[in-house]
Amino acid sequence: MKKSGFVFQCVMSLAVFMAVHTSSYAKELAGVSLKDQIMVQGIDSPLKLNGAGIRYKFFFKIYVGALYLPEKQTDAATILKSSQPNRILMHFIYDDVPKKKLVDAWLEGFENNNNKAAFDAVKSRLYEFNGMFSDVKKDDVVLLDYFPGKGTRVSIKGVEKGVIKGRDFNRALLYVWLGEEPVTEELKDAMLGIEED
Predict the structure, then answer these.
(1) Where are the chain's structural domains?
(2) In the CATH scheme, what architecture does the domain 26-191 have?
(3) Are strands 159-165 and 60-69 parallel, antiparallel or unpaired?
(4) Tally of CB atoms within 10 A around 107
(5) Is-contact 172 60, C-beta < 8 A?
(6) Tens-place pLDDT, residues 118-174
(7) Which one of 91, 150, 189, 190 counts the least CB within 10 Å of its CB?
(8) Nearest one of 42, 128, 144, 140 to 95, comparing CA atoms
(9) What region, left, alpha or beta, does residue 42 occupy, with left being phi > 0 and alpha being psi -120 to 50 degrees?
(10) pTM for the whole thing?
(11) What are the backbone dihedrals phi and psi of residue 54, each rounded to the nearest 5 degrees, phi first?
């Protein structure tokens, strides 16, 4: 084989290797690599990265938030009406977030984005949900997976904490990021894939 042909073959092999080993990651935020698509145990088809961004509190980066759906969708109302599976990923990048701050944030997010009837309907389940949390530290990951007909599975630091029943609870949860008063407008747009963070 001629030298030029050998070099070409090496370059092509490297290109194929790089494509195979990097294409599964769609983006990186604050040092957190996010896969383009994932398989969730119990869900038959892969979920695709819809969008991701950083949750800021003042000037501090608190966590990377990502939304996974069966198909990409930029309209919040369409996502909220859907009964398809979904995943919210929260990868914490702040050094230490106490449980109380998490619980307060969940309560505020649910109250601000759901009318009284909707909030009252999920309130007891929100308390159950809050009871699953503990203090989180940098690189801890929270996964919130919705399974149609079953509910929202909560996994924290690699440990499954339980399932909160009801499509209405998952919808109320999604409203925290995608509602009229989201965590931040920037994170909402990023998770909808509208705006790169």
Answers:
(1) 26-191
(2) 3-Layer(bba) Sandwich (3.50)
(3) unpaired
(4) 15
(5) no
(6) 999 999 999 999 999 999 999 999 999 999 999 999 999 999 999 999 999 999 999
(7) 150
(8) 140
(9) left
(10) 0.86
(11) -110, 135
